Amino acid sequence: MIEFNNLKNSYISAIQWGMLAKESSYSLKQGNEILHKFCENLVDNSNQSEMKKLEMKRELEILKELLSKEIEKNYDKG
């Protein structure tokens, strides 16, 4: 599996690029859900211990929530 911090940074960058490209709020929210699941699947399929996987998935859940709030904040400016 790729290094976890690189995975998180790529996840964040994808959402930020979508915001810069003025994608719709709906598209960004759907993208956030899809990328979150994709990252979780990568973690699940890694060779990490179950405890480490749970820790990484918790981090991803927090990241998803933060990105959701950022999307909402960005589009509430409207």
Number of helices: 3
Q: Pick out the low-confidence regions.
A: none
Q: Which class best fits the helix and strand makeup?
A: mainly alpha
Q: Write down how many β-strands occur, each being a DSSP E stretch of 2 or more residues.
A: 0
Percent range for β-strand residues: under 5%
Shape summary: elongated
The main pleated sheet reads as: none
Helicity, in percent?
Answer: over 70%
Mean pLDDT: 94
Query: Kindly, what is the distance between the CA atoms of the first and last residues, rounded to a whole number of angstroms?
Result: 39 Å
Order of helices and strands: HHH
What is Rg? 13 Å
Put the structure in a nutshell:
This protein is mostly helical. 82% of the residues lie in helices and 0% in strands. The chain is built from 3 helices and no strands.
